[in-house]
Amino acid sequence: MKIRTIRHNNRRKVFEITTSTKRLVFPFPKAEPRPTTSDPVRQSFVDQDVGREAFGYVLQSGRSGTVHVEQVLEYNQDPGYLRDLLLYRLTIEAQKRVATSPLAKREIIRRLGTSAAQLYRLLDQTNYRKSVDQLLALLQVLDCEIDLIVRAKTA
Q: What secondary structure does DSSP assign to 72-108, as a single string?
């Protein structure tokens, strides 16, 4: 996700980020170095060096910091970001299980009822067009038991 604009609001103590589809905020206390009332943000800018996927800021003291868009999405509990994170974690686990499985890849493909190309797409951690359902089916074929645990966040 690319950042279109960034503004800092020293009064509200937040960075205001605009992407192509969303308006998000990122509070100063989450940034490092942390802007304070005695050392406020002097300038904020979209970081072109990382393909507009981060923003930088400079404090009155001259110290500077960078915040990646993923930090902003995580803070704002963006559903798309959380889905992609879940897909990534499930894919990494599936890769490990396939590597240690006694089943041949052809047998895994047969049990899934799919093609070799589809199996490799499922095992590609950069592919976010796959579904959680497909990964759960793959893990089931690999004799994994999956439990989803929902718990309160810790501070």
A: HHHHTT-HHHHHHHHHHHHHHHHHHHHHH-SS-HHHH
Rounded distance, CA 80 to CA 30, Å? 21
Q: 0.85 exceeded by the pTM? A: no
- d(C-alpha 86, C-alpha 132), whole Å: 8
Give CA–CA dist 17/110, Å, rounded: 47
Same domain, 66 and 95: no
pLDDT in tens, 6-32: 999 999 999 999 998 999 999 999 999
Question: Is the predicted pLDDT of residue 137 greater than 80, yes or no?
Answer: yes
The number of CA neighbours under 13 Å toward the Cβ of 23 is 3
Clarify whether residues 19 and 60 are in a common domain. yes
Q: What is the pLDDT of residue 66?
A: 97
